[in-house]
Backbone:
């Protein structure tokens, strides 16, 4: 008898009734609805309704005419859908002395958001990379100052910043507002980038140093290709924060440079003429559309990056 036959016989003898098992058979057991699952899904459902109900009211109101809105049922769908409020909110609604809708504010917001996001992310990524991988003199002190800066209330810094921007000649301009957003975004972004780069394998950095790579070679050829999730996190945080900002926009710019949020406030809080709730709702949705689109496009990378950038101190 050969060795393989002996081994097979031994396996048959070790199994009950001389049978071999190839894996679990039968139907997959169905999950029962436990009290824990009821509590979990019930809580999620209530939270979803809480956040989606105002959005539903905004959408249906923006698609109604004023006679239908005056009937008073804000939850009912529109009997006759009209997009006239959207057109008026974008092109002809009055924001102070100007009656060109949100279109001017939209392009002002784009001109503010894009350079502010690019500049703050570029500087913060280099800062985080240097603090995580290059131990220079005073690195801990520099990092502590940045962390403290991330938690200083913006309102405390407004008056000194106004004086600084006035002295250097950029107060009331888009350039001044871009500088303000870039500076205030760098502390928290530097913290995220530093934690993310610290979570990457140190052997990659050491191997590159042994091969003779310098500061910028390691950053551009090794760190950047591995850092897409944290860059998406930084991009979403900056776009959301800058696009939705009202305080800096109204303080550091003039009316011709007002961002979309400031013009939205002027439309909604207008005290002249009839209160057009459908136009107000359409203008509100238009103002919040850009951050929502950015998040839905890159939401999965956002979750990955925020988890990777928050696990190391």
Residues:
């Amino acid at each position: 008898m050969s060795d393989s036959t002996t081994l097979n016989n031994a396996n048959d003898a070790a199994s009950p009734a001389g049978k071999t098992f190839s894996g679990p058979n039968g139907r997959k057991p169905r999950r029962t609805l436990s009290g824990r699952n009821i509590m979990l899904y019930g809580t999620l459902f209530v939270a979803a309704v809480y956040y989606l109900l105002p959005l539903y009211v905004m959408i249906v109101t923006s698609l109604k005419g004023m006679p239908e809105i005056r009937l008073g049922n804000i939850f009912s769908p529109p009997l006759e859908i009209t997009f006239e409020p959207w057109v008026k909110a974008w092109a002809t609604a009055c924001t102070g002395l100007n009656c060109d809708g949100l279109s001017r504010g939209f392009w002002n917001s784009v001109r503010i958001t894009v350079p502010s996001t690019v500049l703050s992310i570029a500087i913060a990524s280099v800062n985080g990379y240097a603090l995580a991988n290059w131990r220079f003199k005073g690195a801990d002190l520099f990092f502590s100052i940045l962390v403290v800066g991330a938690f200083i209330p913006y309102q405390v810094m407004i008056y000194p910043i106004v004086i600084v921007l006035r002295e250097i000649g950029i107060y009331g301009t888009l350039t001044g507002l871009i500088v303000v957003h870039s500076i205030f975004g760098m502390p928290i972004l530097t913290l995220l980038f530093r934690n993310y780069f610290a979570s990457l394998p140190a052997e990659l950095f050491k191997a590159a140093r042994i091969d003779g790579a310098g500061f910028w070679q390691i950053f551009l050829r090794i760190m950047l290709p591995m850092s897409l999730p944290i860059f998406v996190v930084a991009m979403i945080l900056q776009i959301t924060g800058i696009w939705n900002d009202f305080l800096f926009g109204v303080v550091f710019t003039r009316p011709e440079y007002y961002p979309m949020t400031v013009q939205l406030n002027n439309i909604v809080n207008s005290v002249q003429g009839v209160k057009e709730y459908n136009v107000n709702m359409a203008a509100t949705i238009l103002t919040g559309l850009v951050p929502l689109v950015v998040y839905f496009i890159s939401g999965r990378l956002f979750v990955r990056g925020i988890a990777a950038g928050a696990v190391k101190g």
